[in-house]
């Protein structure tokens, strides 16, 4: 990963450490020592990526337990809605499965932020996007990018199509129609998925990457939960979702180089560390350009890098300490392990954590 953005790592906020020690001391039922009691108080409002929902619930529970006078509300309304909510000033932070685009940043208008403030974008939730399906008698499939693109483009319409059979000689594939399911809302998961299809199978997938599904066809479902439910309740259905929500559905191993790589937190983390930061961004804006066509061993290219987005400088200082403390907890090894355990995400590397911590420390 290109790590030119910051020179000197900053320490994670003291509040996070105090919070964790307070939590540990309470596990045995004894009262927390007076010196470790949290002095944080207030309410934070966040909204955005539904992919983060399971992680956010765990993060919020841990942070509020350690800081009993703090309330954090997170509305998993979807990435597009979360960015709009943050732009309008109705939330203190946003969750988004993509970073703001250059033209969106140029337009500005972030109502919570001080005039001319930049924003901080922190890649704190990293997860593979699983290609999930419901096909009786089949638990897993090996597919290359062109075949996945052909299915979602409506060009491969039967499960026993030769393109699927060629890479799955031992699978019993029925003469059954394929029903592709996509998100109906503006979704960062959709944008990441279509970005992969366009990069890895450009001859088949001719649409630009976008959070809105680019054409009519297939079945549409609202949010991560809606899509997973549609695939689960269908027959011959296939979709894409944050891997933490794959459950008992069939999943696809993706061809990378000469091997088929199943999704895993480790494979997701590997592709992130092999990818550069976006050029031309402000200090603290850690947008990552995922290398979707990498052929390195063990990487899984359909990965979602979901960001926590805050102001570089807030117009009002009331919640600045609380924002920084919460984000510091999310970035800490403990916060990342909590998300990995409860949501199946990939913990960020120590090197990336240094950059994230420095960005959080810069918030005013």
TrEMBL record:
Write out the coiled-coil annotation as residue ranges.
none
Signal sequence bounds: 1-24
Q: Which CDD domains match?
A: PBP2_PstS
What InterPro entries does the annotation carry?
A: ABC_phos-bd_PstS, PBP_domain, Phosphate-bind_PstS
The alphabetical list of record keywords is:
Phosphate transport, Signal, Transport
Q: Which residues form the PBP domain?
A: 35-334
Protein's UniProt keywords contain Nucleus: no
Nucleus among keywords: no
- Family, per entry: Belongs to the PstS family.
Return the protein name. Phosphate-binding protein
